[in-house]
Design brief:
Elements (H helix, E strand, L loop, with lengths): L2 E2 L6 H16 L12 E7 L3 E12 L2 H9 L12 E3 L2 E4 L5 E5 L2 E15 L3 E16 L7 E16 L2 E8 L12 E2 L5 E13 H7 L6 E16 L5 E6 L5 E9 L5 H24 L1
Length: 287
C-alpha cells in the first residue's frame, strides 16, 4: 500500500529527527556541516505564467557526502536538477535527490528551491499546488532504530498585485491543504522499495480576500525547502530514501484570465468612451 506523505513534518517528527541526528552526528568526529552551493537554472516560460530566477541551494550534513554526491555526479545541477515546463507546471526529475546511511549514523540532504512566479499580461495567480513522490527502503532489515523521513517547508510572498508592486504580503503556510504525515521505521525484516507521496496547495486568492485586499496577485516569490532524513542506531543496517527520477516534484500554478486589461485595451476603451460621448453630444445638439 502506498504511503501518503505530508510535505511537512509534524512537531514530534521534527524533534525526533533533530535529536537523532544531533546525537548520531555528534558521535562522528569526521562529520561537519557542508558549505551550501547554489545552482542557477534561469527562467522558464509557462502558458500563462513565467518562472523567473529558478535556483536551488543544497546542503548535506556531511561534507564528504556533499563532495561525493554532487562533485562526482554533476557540477552543474543540484538534487532537484534543471526543471522543464509543461503548461503552467514547473517539473523536476531529480537524479541525485537520494540519501543512504550504512551502519550506525545519520545524515540530512536538504535543498532549497527558489523562484518567482510572474503572471503574463491578462492573467493573475490564484493558487499553486505541489506534488512530490519517492521511495524508501531498509534492504537488510532493522528495527525502530532504523528510520527515514521527508519534510518540506514552503514560503510564499506576494510582491505584486494587478501589475503593481506592493509591500510584501507573506501568505501563511496554514493556508496550505496538506495530507496527514508519517515517518518510516524498520520493522525487523527487510523492507523493499516502498513509495511515498505528498501534496500541498496554497490558495493565494483566498488569503488576499481574507485581508480584504482587492485585486489579483501577479507576482509571487516561492521558496520550497525540501529535506530527506535517514539514519540508524543499529550496526550493519541500511536506510535509504529518495525522490523519484521522473516527476519527483511538480509545482502547478492556477491562474485566472484577464484580471487586468492590457495597456492597449485601456487606450482603446478610453478612446471608445470619448467617441461615444462625442457622438452623443452631437446627437443631443441636433435634437
Amino acid at each position: 500500500m502506498q504511503a501518503r506523505k505530508s510535505l511537512f513534518l509534524t512537531p514530534w517528527q521534527g524533534a525526533f529527527c533533530a535529536l537523532a541526528l544531533v546525537g548520531l552526528l555528534a558521535a562522528s568526529s569526521s562529520t561537519a556541516l557542508a558549505v551550501p552551493i547554489t545552482y542557477s537554472y534561469g527562467n522558464a516560460a509557462g502558458s500563462t505564467v513565467d518562472f523567473i530566477g529558478v535556483s536551488e541551494t543544497p546542503t548535506l550534513a556531511s561534507a564528504a557526502d556533499q563532495k561525493a554526491h554532487f562533485e562526482a555526479i554533476s557540477k552543474t545541477e543540484g538534487p532537484f536538477g534543471a526543471p522543464s515546463v509543461g503548461g503552467d507546471s514547473l517539473l523536476f526529475n531529480p537524479a541525485t535527490f537520494s540519501l543512504t546511511v550504512v551502519g550506525v549514523g545519520a545524515d540530512i540532504l536538504d535543498s532549497q528551491l527558489s523562484f518567482t512566479i510572474a503572471a503574463k499580461a491578462g492573467y493573475g495567480i490564484d493558487a499553486f499546488g505541489i506534488q512530490e513522490a519517492g521511495d524508501y527502503t531498509f534492504p537488510v532489515g532493522g528495527g525502530a532504530g532504523t528510520w527515514a523521513s521527508v519534510g518540506a517547508a514552503v514560503s510564499v510572498v506576494v510582491t505584486e498585485i494587478d501589475g503593481k508592486a506592493v509591500t510584501p504580503i507573506f501568505v501563511p503556510t496554514e493556508n496550505a491543504v496538506i495530507l496527514p504525515s508519517s515517518s518510516f521505521f524498520g520493522t525487523g525484516s527487510p523492507v523493499p522499495a516502498s513509495p511515498w507521496s505528498g501534496t500541498g496547495y496554497v490558495d493565494i486568492a483566498a488569503y488576499l480576500a481574507s485581508l480584504s485586499i482587492m485585486g489579483t496577485a501577479t507576482q509571487v516569490d516561492v521558496t520550497l525547502d525540501n529535506t530527506l532524513y535517514a539514519g540508524s542506531s543499529e550496526a550493519g543496517k541500511i536506510a535509504k530514501i529518495q525522490k523519484k527520477l521522473f516527476d519527483g516534484t511538480s509545482i502547478t500554478v492556477v491562474t485566472n484570465n484577464n484580471p487586468i486589461p492590457e495597456p492597449s485595451s485601456l487606450v482603446l476603451a478610453a478612446l471608445g468612451a470619448v467617441g461615444v460621448g462625442w457622438c452623443g453630444r452631437r446627437q443631443f445638439r441636433k435634437s
